[in-house]
Each structure stands twice: as C-alpha cells, then as structure tokens.
C-alpha cells in the first residue's frame, strides 16, 4: 500500500509539472503525460517495476471514457452511423489486419501468430485520439467525425476479436526465434488465467458462448435494472450516492468483463449506449467526468513509465523502424480510405494522421493472446514496446497535421471544409455569435435539442470549449440545411451577422418549408422590411429590446414608478410591432424612406398614434389613482 501511494504521488507531481508545460508549448496534454511517465520511470528511476499495479488502476480512465462516450450515443445514432461504422471502420480494420499480418509473416511468424499480431496492431488509440481531437476542437470536422466512426468500430470489434483469439489457441504452430531455435506459443510461461475466471478451462466455443452471455447480461441490466436503482437512490436525496452508484456500475461491469476475458472498456461502452436514453444520463456524466480525467492522465503516465528501455536500447533502430512501419502502413491505408469515402484536404490528413498509431486495446489483445498461448512471450514484449512507441509518436502526428493544415491555408486551401452533420433536431440555429448563443443557451437549458450552424471556425471552436456542440458550415447552403433536418424542423432561428445572408436564408427556408416557423435577427428597421417580405414569422431587431429596457430605466429615474415605466414600455413595444407591420406594407425597396411619400405619411400617422396611446395610458392611470 505504501508503495502504491508513493508511486501515485510521484506520478501526480510529475503530471502537475510536465502537463502545463506541454500544453503551453502547444504539444497537448497527452504528450505531457507520456513525457512525465518517461522522466520519472526509465529516465530517473523514481518508480520501480511495481508500476503494473498502478497501471491496472489507471486503466479505469479508459473504461470511464468509453462509458461516457457510450452515454453520448443513442442506439438510433449508432444506426444512423452504420454506413461509416461498417464501411469505413470495417474496411480499415480488415485491410490493416491483412497488411500487418503479411508483414509479420514475412518476418518469419506463423500465419496464426501473424493474424493475432495484425489484429492487435490494427486498432488505434481511442484515449489519445479522442482526447486530442476534443482539445483541438476538431471532433465535429468531417475528418474528426470519420476518425470517431473508425474508433467506435474498433472498440466494438474488440468483442469478436477477443472471442476469436481463443479459437486460435492450440492451432498456432511454432515460430523461429532470432537464434534459429524452435519456440512454441506460451513457452515462456505467460499468464494462464491466474485468478477468478468464468472461461478458464473452457473450449473455444464455450468461451465464445460465455462472452456473448456476458454482453447480453450488461444490455439487459442496463435496460431493466439501472432505472429502478437510480430512482431508489434519488428518493434518498443524497448527492454522494449518485457518485457511488456511478462508480459501482463502471467497476461492476469491468469486473464482469474481466471474468470472461473481455475488455472492461468495451463492456462499459455497451452499458453507456444502453443508458444513453436514461433520464439519469447527465447525472452519470457529471459524476464520472472528474474521475475520468484524472485516471486517463495516470494511464498515459504509466504507459510512458512502463516502456522497456532496456529492450529498446538493445535494438533501438529495429524497434523504431517497426513502429514507424506500423504508422506508415496504417497511414497509407487510411489515406486511401479517406479518398474513397470523400474526405478532402485537411480533413483527409486529419483522418490519416490521427489513426495511424496502435492503441491501448493492443496492450489488452497482446496480453490476452499470450494468456491463450497464441503469441510467444518474447514476441509480445516487442509488440508492447512497438505499441507504446507508436502511441508516443501520436502527438507528433497531430503537430504534423497542424503544420500541414496551416501550410494548406497559406497556399490558398480556402476555408475549412464544412462538418459532416449527423444529427437533426426540432430547432435549427443559424449563427452562434453574441445573439444566437443566448437563444441557444435558453432553448437547450429548457430541455430542447438544437442544431447549431456557423461558418466561423473560431466561434465554433470556442463554443465547443464551453461544452456546446455546433457544426461548421455556411448556413445558407441547401445541402447543409438538408443534413441538419430542415424538412422536419419546427423552428429556424436565422441569427447570422451578415444581414444579406439572413435574408437569403429566410427566403430559401420559406420556399422549401412553408410550415416552418422562422425567427430572424434584423440589423435595423430597413432590414426588418426585407425579412418581412422574405417570409419571417418573428423578426427581432438586435438592439431593440436592449434599448427598450434602457428607456424603461430612464422613466423609472425621472419620476415614474416601476409599474408605470413597465406599462409605458409594454405600450411602446406593442405599438412598435404594429407600426412595423403597417410600414412594411407601404415600404418600397427601390426608394429611400425619405423619398417614399406613402411611407413618410404613414410613419407620421403612426407616431401620432403612439403619442395618443401613451397619453391615454397615463390618463387611465391617473383616474385609477384618484379613484
């Protein structure tokens, strides 16, 4: 216990120093965590070989991350993503596995051992990629969404891979070691269970059946058991019990998955998807988010500290070359797939460079393969080092993407490609500046889903940092509006800064969807008339309400009571809306207002009507006072 606490304190101290420095240098937090692990482990030797105990604890960060990802994905969303999951993700796993399998066979490995190696290296790092995409605000770009689809497919694919690996056991034949001797899988005494297990001693088909049963149990428990338990906890009105229950769910799922030899992270992901429609989803997210961040950071530190530099320094060129070979081979495959699936420019490079590494699930698959006597122990040590090196290189790949992206922009690459919109909702908000953001916050806080579109990349990235989701793209483009669900939307809010773009959007939306309720932001009174002609239902002048409130404050401080000032404000507001509609009927866009006789005459009449309305209001209030 003392050793565990000592290591944890050293890790946290290193993170506090290294991570802010890496973030300040623009390298990202992941590289900071990995560097901290290398410094306190192989470099300074502040932690010993007991790191494995803490690493098992830190792996809960990956588990919680997958659980929270699952909470964000409703089953319907998974169904909507089926083409990218099966097509893009399925092809990436299949082609990468075959390519790496061929490479392993050319190095002298048996085809079954090579297949296990290919499967282990074909998966990318969900933890590093999602963390970095979120930090850089790239999750909603086409490249980021495509990368997420592939990662999701890989996470799901771990289930059948772990079910297949036991079937390879006993079929794998000997492989040739460097000294030319014959070595059979498992000859070096890899772990063979060691602990409580529901699958130990079962034949391959038995392991598969138990695996499927465990997954089914998680799904059924998520549907029928968790809601009653949460309602019971809710009745106790103890805030800390929510956190305890959330942790119990994650730990319980992880334990069950460990019993059947599955990845705990995959079980947590499935449970998250099942609970995505739960009314307690947001409680789970808020309770687990702090634990996820801390444990995920510890996980990256333990990866850096666990690198076997003794083996690395014995053959550094070979191991670095193999890690680079994995990255290049996967990168070529990813680039080709990105081209086939229509990714362009910066998005294709983001997709390629973000997924080219091996991932944390590779550690799980390699260890499981050794346990099942599929991969020899000596080969597994090199594989683990190759996976760690490729993960260590990943932040540098994102730096390379930033360089390529900036060069493409300087070379005339044009604006950022629009995001792939994969959601629809009842409210579409076009423009998320100082006006649209307030509308969006109010509507979302009231429990309604919004689809936010904006053409400014910086605005979208800033919005994402505050936890609000939005899509980059020109809201006036018909294909983006169609993807956002214009045909089924109930309300459209046109709130862009460009007043001409607002008018075009209102006119197009009214033509395409006559029954849609359109709320438009107007720059001034003249713009109101354009929007009225274009078909807007509600027109809001961006300074009108603020100016009206300021006028009420003036009245309150020159002698009127709060009630009298409020009454005057409401009278003015009602009359002004009536006046705008009246003037819109006689407004001529081809004439300045001062040269339009009918407009000027009607404007003077309406102003006189306003004075009379305010005088009548004051007279009525005086009568009430005297009575």
Give me a quick take on this structure.
The chain is mainly α and 627 residues long. It has helices at residues 2-24, 29-43, 51-58, 60-71, 75-80, 82-106, 111-122, 126-135, 142-168, 204-224, 226-236, 239-259, 264-274, 281-305, 309-314, 316-340, 345-354, 360-371, 377-410, 436-445, 457-465, 478-483, 499-512, 525-534, 544-556, 562-586, 597-626, and strands at 175-176, 182-183, 427-430, 450-454, 471-472, 491-494, 517-522, 538-541.
How many helices? The count is 27
Which percent range fits the helix content?
55-70%
Unreliable parts: 172-194
Largest beta-sheet characterization:
6 strands, parallel
Structural class: mainly alpha
**Architecture of the largest domain, CATH level 2?**
Up-down Bundle
Calculate the mean pLDDT score and round it: 78
Can you tell me the CATH class of the largest domain? Mainly Alpha
CATH level-3 fold name of the largest domain: Na+/H+ antiporter like fold
Describe the structure using short key phrases:
8 strands; mainly alpha; two-stranded antiparallel ribbon; 627 residues; single chain; Na+/H+ antiporter like fold; 2 domains; Rossmann fold; six-stranded parallel β-sheet
Secondary structure blueprint with pairings:
Blueprint: H1 2-24, H2 29-43, H3 51-58, H4 60-71, H5 75-80, H6 82-106, H7 111-122, H8 126-135, H9 142-168, E1 175-176, E2 182-183, H10 204-224, H11 226-236, H12 239-259, H13 264-274, H14 281-305, H15 309-314, H16 316-340, H17 345-354, H18 360-371, H19 377-410, E3 427-430, H20 436-445, E4 450-454, H21 457-465, E5 471-472, H22 478-483, E6 491-494, H23 499-512, E7 517-522, H24 525-534, E8 538-541, H25 544-556, H26 562-586, H27 597-626
Parallel strand pairs: 3-4, 3-6, 4-5, 6-7, 7-8
Antiparallel strand pairs: 1-2
């Amino acid at each position: 216990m003392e050793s565990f606490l000592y290591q944890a304190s050293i890790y946290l101290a290193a993170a506090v120093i290294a991570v802010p420095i890496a973030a300040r240098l623009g390298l990202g937090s992941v590289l900071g965590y990995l560097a901290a692990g290398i410094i306190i482990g192989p470099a300074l030797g502040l932690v010993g070989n007991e790191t494995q105990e803490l690493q098992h604890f830190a792996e809960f960060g990956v588990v919680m991350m997958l659980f929270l990802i699952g909470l964000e994905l409703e089953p319907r969303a998974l169904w909507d993503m089926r083409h990218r999951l099966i097509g893009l993700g399925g092809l990436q796993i299949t082609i990468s596995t075959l390519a790496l399998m061929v490479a392993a066979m050319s190095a002298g490995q048996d085809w079954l051992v090579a297949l296990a190696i290919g499967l282990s290296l074909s998966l990318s790092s969900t933890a590093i990629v999602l963390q970095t995409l979120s930090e850089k605000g790239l999750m909603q770009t086409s490249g980021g969404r495509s990368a997420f689809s592939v990662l999701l497919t890989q996470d799901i694919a771990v289930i059948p891979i772990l079910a297949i690996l036991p079937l390879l056991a006993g079929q794998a034949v000997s492989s040739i070691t460097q000294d030319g001797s014959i070595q059979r899988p498992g000859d070096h005494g890899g772990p063979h269970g060691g602990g409580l297990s529901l699958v130990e001693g079962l034949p391959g088909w038995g392991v598969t059946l138990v695996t499927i049963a465990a997954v089914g149990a998680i799904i059924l428990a998520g549907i029928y058991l968790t809601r009653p338990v949460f309602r019971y906890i809710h009745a106790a009105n103890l805030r800390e019990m929510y956190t305890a229950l959330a942790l119990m769910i994650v730990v319980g799922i992880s334990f069950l998955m460990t019993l059947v030899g599955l990845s705990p992270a995959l079980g947590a992901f499935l449970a998250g998807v099942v609970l995505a429609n739960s009314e307690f989803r947001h409680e789970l997210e808020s309770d687990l988010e702090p634990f996820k961040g801390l444990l995920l950071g510890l996980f990256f530190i333990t990866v850096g500290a666990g690198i076997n530099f003794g083996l690395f320094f014995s053959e550094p060129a070979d191991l670095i070359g193999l890690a680079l070979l994995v990255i290049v081979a996967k990168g070529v495959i990813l680039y080709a797939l990105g081209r086939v699936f229509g990714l362009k420019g910066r998005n294709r490079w983001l997709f390629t460079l973000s997924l080219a590494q091996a991932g944390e699930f590779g550690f799980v698959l390699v260890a499981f393969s050794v346990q099942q006597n599929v991969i020899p122990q000596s080969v597994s040590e090199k594989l683990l080092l190759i996976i760690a090196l490729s993960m260590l290189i990943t932040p540098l790949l994102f730096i390379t993407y930033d360089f390529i992206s900036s060069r493409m922009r300087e070379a005339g690459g044009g604006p950022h490609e629009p995001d792939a919109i994969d959601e629809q909702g009842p409210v579409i908000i076009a423009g998320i500046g100082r006006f649209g953001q307030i509308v969006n916050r109010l509507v979302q806080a009231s429990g309604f889903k919004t689809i936010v579109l904006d053409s400014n990349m910086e605005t979208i990235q800033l919005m994402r940092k505050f936890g609000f989701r939005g899509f980059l793209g020109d809201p006036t483009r018909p294909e983006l509006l169609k993807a956002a669900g214009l045909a089924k939307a109930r309300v459209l809010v046109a709130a862009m800064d460009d007043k001409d773009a607002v008018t075009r959007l209102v006119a197009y939306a009214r033509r395409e969807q006559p029954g849609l309720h359109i709320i438009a932001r107007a720059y001034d009174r003249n713009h109101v008339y354009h929007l009225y002609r274009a078909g807007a239902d509600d027109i809001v002048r961006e300074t009108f309400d603020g100016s009206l409130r300021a006028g009420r404050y003036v009245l309150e401080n020159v002698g009127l009571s709060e009630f009298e000032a409020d009454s005057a404000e409401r009278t003015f507001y009602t009359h002004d809306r009536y006046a705008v509609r009246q003037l819109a009927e006689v407004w001529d866009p081809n004439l300045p207002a001062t040269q339009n006789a009918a407009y000027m005459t009607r404007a003077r009449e309406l102003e006189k009507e306003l004075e009379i309305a305010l005088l009548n209001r004051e007279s009525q209030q005086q009568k009430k006072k005297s009575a």
